[in-house]
Amino acid sequence: MDALRRALGGLSLLYALIFLSFGLLHAGIAFGPLREPVIVPAAIVETLCAAAMFAGAYGVLAGRGWAWDGLIYSHAAALGGVLMGILSLALGAGPSSALLSWYHSVTAVLLATGLAGSFYASRVRGATAPRAGGSGATAPGSADSGVTPPRTGDSGATAPGSADSRRPRRRGPR
Length: 174
Known about the structure:
Number of strands: 2
Strand order of the largest sheet: 1-2
Helix content: 55-70%
Structural class: mainly alpha
Radius of gyration: 23 Å
Oligomer: single chain
């Protein structure tokens, strides 16, 4: 799981740099022979996508608790921006080029793959939470997980003073 985390974090950082580069290209800044027409809305969207990808990469590479959720949100936001660019070019809202068409199609596939990988890692991570006293991982509700599965016939009563006993109980239909 650690290898997938590092790979997705590194790729997110790369995607952020690519978004930033195309944002600058759409702002009118040329990189040697690479030139794109000035499209201000595209520059804004690509800059926002770059910021989202930088945030997702930071969360994963720094080992933050929100890292997997951040990867999912950043990939989804960036994929939405790319799809919006594809749609606007298909509707003829701006000038197009071969580089721009290639960029949109490849980036959409890469972001969709990264989103799928983030969902997979998030799902696997949720199913294998680390134990409180050890470094191993077990499935929730197993004998070693520290989580007691609900018993059949449990009345649901709680001890006085516990957090659940202070919640008001609904009795009967209202």
